[in-house]
Design brief:
With 368 residues, the chain is mainly beta. 9% of the residues lie in helices and 35% in strands. The protein has a six-stranded mixed sheet with strand order 14-15-22-21-17-18, with no helix packed on it. It has a five-stranded mixed sheet with strand order 2-1-10-5-6. Strands 3, 4, 7, 8 and 9 form a five-stranded antiparallel sheet that branches.
């Protein structure tokens, strides 16, 4: 669906200086959920702990009657059912997904939307058919420019009724490891993760990984639908076009050490040598360094970064800390091979997108 400026209601508002979480945000938060930080101890996140964001409703899809239409500017339009996909040569790719709005709730002023803190992330083994193979089977016509992915979830956003839909350029769609996936961690996709089939675009924020996929359309021009041209763009003001949100910026997160206070989630632990561990990832280039601070960023020490066989999955890091009684603010930052480094401060924009500022963890080391 093409989005024109005269159709669009004003962008979502910002919270007032002392305004708490709104009922609208609570409704979103009760439908979506974050990954508990302690789940980062595992290389692969179980489906029930992996973060979930659903734009509209989770559609009820009968896998026995579902089909995927591939058409538009192609030489050989295709209609494939689930069994036809399963009969093809599949591959599995381990991918870390992160919501583009991760960290939004801590921004000031706060963009009123899904109020993520830092848990909108997870890593899974996705199994499916390389998108490149399906596109080549359909045969993009001469002059083909972009590929549009249409989902079965349907709703209204900023006054526009729409199916959830995203576009990639043909070059982006043909990239290695982009999948039309039908399994998550070796089992059929759960309903909340796109059953029966979804798109997986490694290295990109979650908005590109279209769930409940029903149609793939090749077009001869740049896709200008709502979710590309309006929704997922970083802007400082409502009246500017902004920059498209694409690849995941480098981020490291700590597995919270010790044990938590029920309400504040601040951590408590015993004095002595403590192994601090966590995960780091980037969609631009492999992570090359993770630094850890136990004094709120005054000093930093490099962590040991575990090698990974999976380009698109997070990597474990760890370092040892001799903890003595007191209150501490722990911070971590990642640097990837492109030279991008996770900033200490959150980077504000109107939608709260692609914000990879480090997330401090408050720790109280108890008396022995």
């Amino acid at each position: 669906m093409t989005a024109t400026t005269d159709q669009i209601s004003p962008p979502g508002r910002l919270a007032g200086p002392e305004e708490g979480i709104t009922l609208d945000e609570l409704r979103l938060a009760s439908r979506n959920h974050a990954m508990p930080a302690e789940a980062m101890r595992a290389d692969v996140t179980p489906p029930g702990l992996h973060y979930v964001l659903v734009h509209y409703d989770i559609p009820h899809v009968d896998a026995d009657t579902w089909s995927l239409d591939i058409g538009g500017d192609v030489e050989r339009p295709l209609v494939l059912d689930l069994q036809a996909l399963r009969d093809m040569a599949a591959r599995t790719v381990r991918v870390t997904l992160e919501c583009a709005g991760n960290g939004r709730a801590a921004l000031s002023p706060r963009p009123i939307s899904q109020p993520w803190l830092a848990g909108a992330v997870g890593t899974a083994d996705w199994t499916g058919i390389p998108l490149r193979q399906l596109l080549e089977d359909a045969g993009p016509a001469r002059g083909a420019h972009s590929v549009v992915f249409t989902a079965l979830d349907h709703g209204i956003e900023r006054g526009i009724e729409q199916d959830y839909e995203r576009g990639l350029t043909l070059e982006q769609a043909m990239a290695d490891d982009v999948l039309v996936a039908f399994e998550m961690n070796g089992a059929p996709l759960p309903p909340q993760h796109g059953h029966p089939v979804r798109l997986v675009v490694p290295g990109w924020y979650g908005m590109a990984h279209v769930k409940w996929l029903s149609r793939i359309t090749i077009i001869d021009h740049e896709y200008d639908g709502y979710q590309n041209a309006v929704a997922y763009r970083t802007r400082a003001r409502p009246d500017e076009p902004g920059e498209a949100v694409t690849r995941i910026h480098p981020r490291a997160l700590l597995v919270p050490p010790g044990f938590p206070d029920f309400m504040t989630r601040e951590r408590a632990l015993r004095p002595g040598v403590v192994e601090l561990e966590g995960r780091a990832w980037s969609g631009w280039a492999p992570v090359e360094q993770v630094d850890v601070s136990t004094d709120d960023g005054a000093t930093w020490q490099p962590a040991e970064l575990s090698p990974s066989e999976h380009r698109w999955a997070w990597q474990r890091f760890a370092c040892r800390w001799t903890a003595s009684p007191g209150r501490y603010v722990l911070r971590v930052r990642a640097t990837d091979g492109s030279g991008r480094q996770q900033p200490a401060d959150q980077q504000w924009n109107l939608g709260g997108f692609a914000n990879n500022g480090d997330q401090p963890v408050i720790v109280h080391v108890l008396e022995a």
